[in-house]
Amino acid sequence: MVMKQANTTRSTHVPVIIVGGGQAGLSASYFLQQENIEHLVLEKNTLMHGWKHERWDSFTLVTPNWQCDLPGHPYTGDDPDGFMNHAEVVEYLNAFAEKVKAPVHEGVTVYSVSCDTKGLYSVATSEGNYTADQIIVCSGGYHIPVIPRMAERLPEEITQIHSAQYKNAAQLPEGGVLVVGAGQSGAQIAEDLHLEGRKVYLATGDSPRVARFYRGKDVVRWLDDMGYYRMSVDHHPLGKNVRSNTNHYVTGRDGGRDIDLRKFATEGMELYGLMTDYQEGELVFQPDLEEHLDTADATYNNINSRIDQWIEQQGVETDEGPSVYKPVWKPESERTRLNLAESGITSVIWSIGYRPDFSWLDASVFNGQGHPQHQRGVTGQPGLYFLGLPWLHTWGSGRFSGVREDAEFLIDKIFAYQEQLDEHCADQGVECQKITESA
């Protein structure tokens, strides 16, 4: 069937519609094409928009290049143990898009998706209406940048941006910078500003950290050898709760290294606990900085200890023996208030994450926090799937390393379901409609 252009009076029917044109959406398209299943990718911006426009200039992957394994497009460069920078990631993804050649409509906003009693999906978009037998949601889980209401009370002269908007130190006015949140993005942005000579104030949280290298190898390589990245969410000690965990902070910058907030403190960065309020010209923090640092270091040492145990069990020979991180700095006291004007802070970067927004999807598949409930991307509603979410099935599900296997698994399910639909049409002795009148 040749798809026809949608208009306001008729709905174009496509067997499968993919919402989102990132690595997940194109991975799904890759396998759908292999199975000759007609489909369409709807992308509200452009392909790989987030990777191209929502990363800072000094961004690098925190996972080594050898883990980049998109469908039909593994990393083939000359630095498998290195970490692609922003430009290299975009080049890698552009090459993937060129290989896939997905049937994509860019600049198309999906307004709503709903399902009737017969299982037919209606998709209202900015270019017209569609119907589909099956929907794959590949729009990710990071939709609305979180900025707390206290931000409204900060002085107007303070520049405020979310981490998704940060590019480099030059975009900010002269003066100190407060980074709120020390997760993977916040810690790396704080480092970037620190290396550029800016005075940085960092409000920490309970983010864990991990070593970059340990006993002669990248920790990612050790964990891969140990089978961690093949562990499904169903067998993880934390179960599905692992999906809400904050990513460990580390960096691939300059060949990869640890991020040690304590070391930054010895070099002039000011660290604080969780920021909770702004009152009468002062920022207010919880007295939990030391707890945050100790907990992060405990995670760091625990991961290394598990590597030590595995090395011993497997009889692996290494040039380096076990070691334990020892703090290079400790806070003399817990500072719970900071006068904003006296500090010289002129900018605030909010790096406290995102919240999901699937308000356009009318389906009873969400929990109380707005996250979809599923089993490896398969929801309880027939014909509705999710792909590319963190820990959809394994650690790599939301990354270049695991989306391929998840996509292949889902397309097998989709192919089987499509066969059932075709058999149903044949049993009824009718030809399934491809173009249906809109309501």
Automatic annotation (TrEMBL):
Pfam families referenced in this protein's UniProt entry, alphabetically: Pyr_redox_3
Keywords for the protein's UniProt record, in alphabetical order: Oxidoreductase
InterPro entries given in the database record: Auxin_biosynth/cation_transpt (IPR050982), CHP04046_FMN-dependent (IPR024000), FAD/NAD-bd_sf (IPR036188)
Cited PANTHER family: FLAVIN-BINDING MONOOXYGENASE-LIKE PROTEIN (AFU_ORTHOLOGUE AFUA_4G09220), FLAVIN-CONTAINING MONOOXYGENASE
Name of the molecule in the record: MSMEG_0569 family flavin-dependent oxidoreductase
